[in-house]
Specification:
Layout (H helix, E strand, L loop, with lengths): L8 H4 L5 H17 L1 H12 L7 E5 L5 H10 L7 E6 L6 H9 L3 E6 L15 E6 L7 H14 L2 E7 L3 H7 L9 H12 L17 E8 L3 E8 L2
Bound molecules: S-adenosylmethionine.
Amino acid sequence: MKRLVQPEWLDTLPPDDPRAVHSRRDLRRVNAWMGSRRLLAQALIKDGPGDPPRHLTELGAGDGTFLLGLAQILAPRWPGLEVTLLDLHENVSSRTLDAFADLGWRAKVVVADVFDWPDRAGDQAGEAVIANLFLHHFENARLAALLQQVSLRAGYFVALEPRRAAWPLFCSRWLGAIGCNAVTRHDAVVSVRAGFSGHEISGLWPDPSGWELAERPAGSFSHLFSARKTK
Ligand SMILES: C[S@@+](CC[C@H](N)C(=O)[O-])C[C@H]1O[C@@H](n2cnc3c(N)ncnc32)[C@H](O)[C@@H]1O
């Protein structure tokens, strides 16, 4: 199946449109079905940055509940982390931010296009970047430019994306059965077609020397890529 990137409806709807609100709720259910929180937490704990990062950014963080779920697992190992939730839209509630604070993590929201990602004073080794259901939004050329930015800023990067394969595509057509709305059903099929297989993300990483790259299928529906700086 050839990779095909098409617009997703959730990206074009105003954040407070009821269809978008419903779809963001669906996304939590879809992430639960995909086991995304467990898969990313395992990747971060087992093969993640050697030392705990000082700062973690999620690209395309949505309403922040995915990262909050990760924080519930990681906070005991990585206390006092500073996190940035970056997204095109302002979706993160004050309740979600308070929940980060309850776990001892300081969370900040940045509303920006990822290609205008504001600069942070450099501490590359202490910076980890994650993405969940995000990289597949971009055509290869833009994705290569984004990975270049990531490689200049972070000592560790991990992304969990849809796996572009027959089984995830089949299942993406059945999301109505778990109550997902038309926006989610549309975007799920588009996302799988724009997803990844093989070593496609590694092939777009700028300069692999000095990095340990890993890329593989994860769970039943996902594709995992990670990059760890080795020098
Ligand atoms: C499928 S959602 C995933 C949200 C979250 N990671 C999760 O798993 O719940 C993709 C998110 O990427 C954001 N997004 C899309 N294009 C973006 C861009 N160019 N810059 C920043 N965020 C973007 C959308 O607003 C949306 O919240």
